[in-house]
UniProtKB/TrEMBL annotation:
This is Hydroxymethylbilane synthase. PANTHER family: PORPHOBILINOGEN DEAMINASE. Residues 3-214 form the Porphobilinogen deaminase N-terminal domain. It catalyses: 4 porphobilinogen + H2O = hydroxymethylbilane + 4 NH4(+). The keyword Transferase applies.
Length: 308
């Protein structure tokens, strides 16, 4: 049996898709996956901020169109790139085990910690959430807007106008097999210091609704705790009304007897940014719905407090 798997064409997207292909083929003997590369609007336009290009969904719409037209059977997404509302004819069928959710400061050779950077360090980031976080942790630093793939962002550490550091997602570096050392060093922020983007480090496997054969195949890739995190954080994103125009972060921690959710939300001018936590203890019933309810409740609370 062969299925076609759609993905973006970046080095990171291809690397994480190959990992999913390996998991699916190993878990479904006789299955062959053929990878199809699809270029998205976000890949084509990299000289402008996401908020100017189209915001939510610019890395997703072309992949969804390919699913709807039957050009691919499955699409692999970085879940943090997906808008909270899905096309009604499509569904997210699996959430593989989460990678490291933390943000990481990548610096040049010889910098062992953040105190080793210049007092007025210039740090590259394309995220309003990361820009606000840097301002809280190191108000003396300057956040410099950047866009592009991992390689192009790391290249900003070199040359006559080199930045002192760039902030990236640890998950992407891990999936690319990039380690610290040599000409660059990784200085991760804890999730307490920098609340990650909702679903950072989680992949979403999307297929056509009603494709029960695909649902059975995807059980080999689904991870229970990651599913609960994804449902909780996506519910927070939807309830909070988040977009790339405002700082928004969420990280759900799975514990033995329930979930703890840390949420962050602000307005686009950064005049008011609120951070709150919530929790749920498992009761008899559906854990997935309890996870969604926790995200919805905290998202609504922050949205009302910020005034969005």
């Amino acid at each position: 049996m062969e299925i076609t798997v759609g993905t973006r064409g970046s080095k990171l997207a291809l690397a994480q898709t190959q990992q999913i292909v390996g998991t699916l083929e190993e878990g479904n003997p006789g299955l062959t996956c053929r990878v199809v590369v699809i270029q998205t609007l976000g890949d084509k336009v990299q000289d402008r901020p996401l908020s100017e290009v189209g915001g939510a969904g610019i890395f997703v719409k072309e992949l969804e169109r390919a699913l709807l037209l039957g050009q691919v059977d499955l699409a692999v997404h970085s879940l943090k790139d997906m808008p909270s509302a899905l096309h009604p004819e499509l569904r997210l069928g699996a959430f593989p085990r989460r990678e490291d959710p933390r943000d990481v400061l990548v610096v040049g050779k010889g910098v062992g910690n953040r105190n080793g950077l210049p007092v007025r360090a210039r740090i590259g980031t394309g995220s309003i959430r990361r820009r606000w976080t840097l301002g809280q942790l190191h108000p003396e630093w300057e956040a410099v807007p950047i866009r592009g793939n991992v390689d192009s962002r790391l290249a900003r550490l070199e040359g006559p106008k080199a930045l002192d550091g760039v902030v990236l997602a640890m998950a992407g570096l891990n999936r690319l097999g990039m380690g610290t050392g040599g000409e660059r060093f990784f200085l991760p922020f804890s999730v307490e210091e920098s609340v990650p983007s909702p679903c950072q480090g989680i992949l979403g496997l999307q297929h056509r609704r009603g494709d029960h054969g695909m649902e059975r195949l995807l059980t080999a890739a689904d991870h229970g705790d990651t599913r609960l995190q994804a449902l909780c954080e996506r519910a927070f994103l939807e309830s909070a009304g988040g977009s790339c125009h405002v700082p928004i972060g969420a990280y759900c921690r799975v514990e033995k007897d329930g979930l703890v959710l840390e949420g962050l939300l602000g307005d686009e001018n950064l005049r008011k940014v609120v951070r709150r936590s919530g929790s749920v203890r498992w009761e008899q019933g559906n854990k997935e719905e309890q996870s969604r309810a926790l995200g919805r409740d905290l998202g609504l609370e922050l949205r009302q407090e910020v005034g969005l």
